[in-house]
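Is FE(4)-NI(1)-S(5) cluster placement plausible here? Inputs below.
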Amino acid sequence: MAKKERTMDERTIDPASKEMLIRADELGLGTAFHRAEAMPPCNIGAAGMCCKFCGMGPCRLTKDGSTGVCGATIDTIQARNLVRAIAAGSAAHSDHGRDMAFTLKAVANGETEGYVLRDIAKLRTVAAFYDIPIEGRSPEEIANDLADLYIAQFGQQKGELAPIRRATEKRQKLWRELGVVPRGIDREVVESLHRTHMGDDQHVPHLLEQAVRTSMTDGWGGSIIATDIADILFGTPAPVVGQANLGVLKDDMVNVVVHGHEPLLSQMMVVASQDPEIIEYAEAAGAKGVNMSGICCTANEILVRQGVPAAGNFLQQELAILTGAVEAMVVDVQCIMQALVSLSENFHTKVITTSPKVRITNATHIEFNEHKALTIAKDILKVAIDNYKNRGETQIPDVRSDLVPGFSHEYINYMLGGTYRSSFRPLNDAIMSGRIRGVAAIVGCNNPRSTQDHFHTYVTKELLKQDVLVVETGCGAIAAAKLGLLLGEAGLDKVGPGLREICETIGIPPVLHMGSCVDNSRILTVLTQMAEEGGLGDDIDQIPAVGLAPEWMSEKALAIATYCVASGAYVIFGGSSPLSGMPDRVSDSDLVLNYLSVEWENLYGGKLEFINEADEMVQKTLEHIDKKRAALKLPEYDASKFGKSGDARMGELESLSFEEQQKALYGVPA
Ligand code: NFS
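Reply from A.M.:
I modeled the complex. Tokens:
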């Protein structure tokens, strides 16, 4: 494939990103956008046809029927590559959960600095779920037991991962029958690495079964653990006002951007930035204070809880440095580009690594430790403030959007019914009546090989027009935020008539920002509670819902896709397929791709497909939603039935008889 330099419109739809890419060009500096253009992907590896698991290779299988030196077929190689990616993705999310669990244990035992048990109600709810005694016990005692239970999930060797009991009864039974319930988080990840070592598991269905088992250690393991504990320590999200895009950086303040994933340090940095000692220190340096903002999922963690602005999503990490206005970019784990450090050398920005697990050559390392969290957070901020005087010329794009994030599953439950009758009933009823055609979860990354934010926002906008309620997490949520779709009634002119009625009646944006990528566990919880509420079948695979990652790039995304499939969801991935194989392969040799779409649907009721056209993603989503509606015998979606606000319609209905009301609402007499 020849090198191809793209136009600005092909690189990104985001005006702030365009402005910074022009600045990069003017300064002669490269970014991931430029590097992606300069280096087309290897078409053998990208299609999953390369095996480099041993020293006899790498083997490149470019002809139908060819094998690796050991005799491995292309199907085996593709399945092994997928299992390894899922193991890495699950390891990342789960290790995040492990750090949270150890911190909860330390907080419960008074060994930390700066943290408190903030959401005692959630602590009690979660503990009670696992039969941890709560009555007459202090929050610290309960938290200690919950931390022990969660820590034990990682090293457990036999039995079942405890959080899988949060799935529907039917789903748990299915998993047990299929033998895919994870025994322990670390055990499944290790077994995946073992099985994919040279000379081990070579049977595609058997490998893909382990892919499912391993992915569940993420969605029904580490991610649920991470979300629960983040809520307990930092508060369960509820709607809050925030802002997104590079325009949140401030010319007259010390800009500190936190980037990565674990909220442990970023939350403490937010606390420290408001400390009078730090404000005074910043003022003494000539700034008006410290302006905190975030990139990637750590941005989402502090955005959904405190409304701390998001400077951008994955592809904006370098662009933030290009503003010249960032004193420090403080990173922990995951999604951090090595290029940040060399780029920062052209400016005054300090890239500060903080995790014992992640160092980058030539970055400043200030190691984080939860036992001295507040002190370390202040130390880091002082390094940033000291750097303010070194700031050169800046260019901050005047581009930012307001948004209302913070839709935890607890809040969604509450908002639908109020304090005393919180319930998913109104949501289920809205789907059953056809006001809401179905639900789409649009999640995941940016990828410089796609047009940044284009797929996310195109698919989101098209589905909203079709009365599909959209929930989002991760970098997809930040993309929608930048487009103004997360702002209450401001986005409603772009929404179908039935969904609009619901949004107006409840007072919610048409796109609900549910948090970071580990918070996809919240989406599993919402879907489970919808299934348990009744009227939409008795399990996730019957709900008219689809998951999409239109611009995926990370191994974590593949792990998420797989646990969503195992939970019964249809998942669509945009952009490239790591399993596309040979261009002219005939269907019977597309074993792995077919397995993911056909066999997984037979087994789990969910499936994974790779689709690279945005309109096709929309069309397949709607087809699936309508198929599920038909299977539930719900009325066919008909937008013309709706169009007035909930209140206006209720007024009209009052004059009708009960039968007529039922007919008007559900299309059938009672
Ligand atoms: Ni998810 Fe979050 Fe963004 Fe993708 Fe990276 S930040 S964990 S992996 S790029 S959504």
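Short version: The mean pLDDT is 93.
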